Amino acid sequence: MNAVPPGPAARFPFRHLLGIEGLHPPQIEALLDLAESYALLNRSGKTQRDLLRGRTLINLFFEDSTRTRMSFELAGKRLGADVLSMAVATSSVNKGETLLDTAATLNAMNCDLLVVRHAASGAPALLAQKVDAAVINAGDGTHEHPTQALLDALTIRRHKGRLAGLTVAICGDIAHSRVARSNIHLLIAMGSRVHLVGPPTLMPAAVDRLGAHVFHDMAQGLAGADIVMMLRLQRERTARGLVPSAREYFRFWGLDAARLALARPDALVMHPGPMNRGVEIDSQVADDPARSLIREQVEMGVAVRMAVLDVLARAPRGRRAKPAA
Question: Distance between CA atoms of 294 and 144, rounded to whole angstroms?
Answer without folding.
Answer: 20
